[in-house]
Amino acid sequence: MSADSAREAVLGRVREALRGTERQPLSAVPRDYRTSRPADDLVGLFCEAVADYKATVDRVAGDAVPSAIATTARASGARRLLIPDGAPRAWSEALREEFELVDPAAGTEALEQVDAVITTAAVGIASTGTIVLDHGPGQGRRAVTLVPDVHICVVAENQVADDVPAAMSRLDPVRPTTFISGPSATSDIELKRVEGVHGPRTLHVLVAPMP
C-alpha cells in the first residue's frame, strides 16, 4: 500500500468514527483544570518554590516586616539601602537610624553604590516560585531592582496566585512587568552557574499577611 493510500485509509476510518457526532464549540469544553488547582497551603507552596531557586525566604508577621527587613539587610552586610516611593513609611522609619537611605530617584551611577533595594511586589506565583513586579508603588523603576547586588522583596500573602494564568489575570497588560525567579544567574558558558550577571546576586523574600 502506498503512503497516499495508507493516509486515505486512516482518514477514512476517522471520518467513519466521527460520522453522526455533533461538533462541540470550544467554549463549551470545561477548562476548570486550567484555572483551579487547590492547595492546602498556597503560600507555603510559594515559599518552597522560591527556596528551590536558591533565594532565602521567610514568613513573618505583618507588624514584624520592618524589623525583618533590618535583620535581613544586616545579615547581607548592606549599609546603603534604597526604598522606592510608595513603600510603607514604617520601613524607612525603622531603617533610617541604622542604615543610609538613598534617594529613590538616584541615577545609574548612584545606584551602583547601593547595597540593597527593598521593594514590594505585584504578584507571587506559587507553582513556579516567581515574583512579578509591575513597578507600581513600592516597587520602583526597573533599574533599581537590577543594579543593586541584593534585593529584599516583601510579598503579601494575598498576592500569591496559584499559577501563571492566575497571576496574569491580576496584572495590567499595559504596565511594564519584571519576572523574578531567584537570584540572577546564567549557565551559558561551559554550563557553569554564574550569579549576579543580569541582576541582583542575592534575593531575600519576606512573606507577610499584609493587606
Automatic annotation (TrEMBL):
Protein name as catalogued: L-lactate dehydrogenase complex protein LldG
InterPro entries: FTHF_cligase-like_sf (IPR024185), LUD_dom (IPR003741), NagB/RpiA_transferase-like (IPR037171)
UniProt source species: Saccharopolyspora dendranthemae
Pfam families documented for this protein: LUD_dom (PF02589)
LUD domain boundaries: 109-207
